[in-house]
Amino acid sequence: MHETGLAADVYRIARAAADARGGGRLESVTLVVGELASVEPDLIAYAWEAAVGGTPDEGTRLAIEWRAARQTCAACGEIPERAAGSWLRLCPRCDGALAVSGGDELDVRNVSFLEGEPVGDPRRRARCASPPAENAHAQPGGGIPQAPSGDQEPATAGGSP
Ligand SMILES: [Zn+2]
Questions:
Q1: φ, ψ dihedrals at 78, nearest 5°
Q2: Gap from CA of 89 to ligand 1 centroid (Å)
Q3: How far is residue 46 from each of residues 40, 96, 149, 161, measured CA to CA in Å?
Q4: Has this prediction a pTM greater than 0.70?
Q5: Tell me: the pLDDT tens digits for 86-144?
Q6: 156 C-alpha vs ligand 1 centroid, how far in Å?
Q7: Residue 96: other Cβ atoms inside 10 A
Q8: At a CB cut-off of 8 Å and minimum separation 6, what does 90 contact?
Q9: What domains does the chain contain, in order, with CATH numbers?
Q10: Which of 23, 36, 101, 159 has the most CB atoms lying inside 10 A of its own CB?
């Protein structure tokens, strides 16, 4: 099930897109999915809930825009007699080989967010976060993880002044 990683990627991309425009909380995100991208509608919806859960963007709606693939026969042209999601190996009219186009889309579109409510650091935990489910492996002692060697700061991504 790759939907979990996909949902995390979609969220990261959407959050970055909103941040780049000074946006606040996400409202909805549209994901374009081709029918050949091996994405299960139920699984991606579930994975999305998990990806935004516990973040300031919890409850953001994920809209899926499905895109069909086209199959064409060199002799007969486009082959419409194909059930959605199913697949033909050979042309039903002449048994010729079929070419495929499209259907492998996997793109984030239409990130909408609320203006004037910047969420700050997206990695910050929500105030009322439920018990950490996936980060349950806390450090022994439960304190803040310490840098292994002295006070050397790691390079800051993003370049603070
Ligand atoms: Zn044909």
A1: -65, 140
A2: 11
A3: 10, 40, 40, 40
A4: no
A5: 678 889 899 999 998 899 999 999 999 998 655 555 444 344 334 444 443 444 444 44
A6: 58
A7: 13
A8: 96, 97, 98
A9: 3-68+103-115 (3.30.2320.50)
A10: 23
Ligand 1: centre distance to CA 68 (Å): 20
Distance 105 CA to ligand 1 centre (A): 26
Whole-number Å distance, alpha carbon 128 to ligand 1 midpoint, is: 60
Q: Which of 101, 92, 29, 104 is nearest to 66 (CA)?
A: 104
> Measured in angstroms, how far is the CA atom of residue 66 from the centroid of ligand 1?
26
Distance 87 CA to ligand 1 centre (A): 15
